[in-house]
Specification:
Blueprint (H helix, E strand, L loop, with lengths): L1 E10 L4 E11 L4 E5 L6 H8 L7 E6 L2 E2 L6 H8 E4 L11 H6 L9 H14 L15 H13 L5 E5 L7 H18 L2 E6 L2 H5 L3 E6 L2 E2 L3
Parallel strand pairs: 3-8, 3-9, 6-7, 7-8
Antiparallel strand pairs: 1-2, 1-4, 4-5, 9-10
Helix pairs in contact: 4-5, 5-6
Length: about 220
């Protein structure tokens, strides 16, 4: 599903080397953790896989296609990738259901279909009583579940989760991650989790360890 080939990323005219030429593969439906200390390149790697940034060198292949040579990146992201971040990034003045609708605006989906799809996913997340609540009126765990619904709304092939439990306490974080892994497993979605938390990493099927922009194992 994902093949990363000799990937490099530098900033500040080459002074900062975030990724130093890494290669690995992740199978379809596999849940993998990218683990390492802050500054090791985890978030940079997720941003490149998710087409939020472009590599300095190397290639990223998803589903047998080089993403740099395919459809426009915005279309690729909307159709293929779901993002779950440490902080939910919900729009504060939109209701939960309106937040979940947002990724569908970049695709040809009718207004009624957007609303029906968002409501169905929020109900699946156990948020049927919170559909019209603003993010500030629900708990941290509920906000993160709404963010998961938003990530799932376009039926992505891949979920990229960057420290997805970092903004909630351990008990809630474990429940959220269990839920996310179970959801991806049911839907055969490939998931990549960036984390420095050993407990989080242990819940995935495989761990790729990074340090100083390089892979130590995996």
């Amino acid at each position: 599903m994902i093949a990363v080939k000799d990937l490099k990323k530098v900033y500040d005219y080459g002074l900062v080397k975030a990724l130093n030429g890494i290669s690995f593969e992740i199978e379809e439906g596999e849940a993998v953790s990218i683990m390492g200390p802050s500054g090791c390149g985890k978030t940079t790697l997720l941003n490149l896989i998710g087409a939020l940034d472009t590599p300095t060198a190397g290639e990223i292949w998803i589903g047998g296609k080089n993403i740099a040579k395919g459809e426009p990146m915005a279309v690729f992201r909307a159709k293929t990738i779901g993002f779950v971040f440490q902080f939910h990034h919900l729009v504060p003045n939109l209701s939960l259901v309106e937040n979940v609708e947002l990724p569908m605006f970049s695709l040809p989906v009718s207004k009624r279909s957007r609303r029906d799809r968002a409501i169905a996913l929020l109900k699946e997340m156990g948020l049927e009583e919170r559909l019209n609540f603003l993010p500030t009126r629900v708990s941290g765990g509920e906000r993160q579940r709404a963010a998961i619904a938003r990530a799932m709304v376009n039926d992505p092939q891949i979920i990229l989760a960057d420290e997805p439990t970092g903004s909630v306490d351990t008990a809630i974080g474990n429940r959220i991650l269990d839920f996310l892994i179970s959801l991806c497993d049911q839907r055969k979605i490939t998931m990549v989790v960036a984390t420095h938390n050993h407990e989080v990493a242990a819940q995935t099927k495989r761990i790729i360890r990074m340090r100083n922009g390089l892979i130590e194992n995996g």
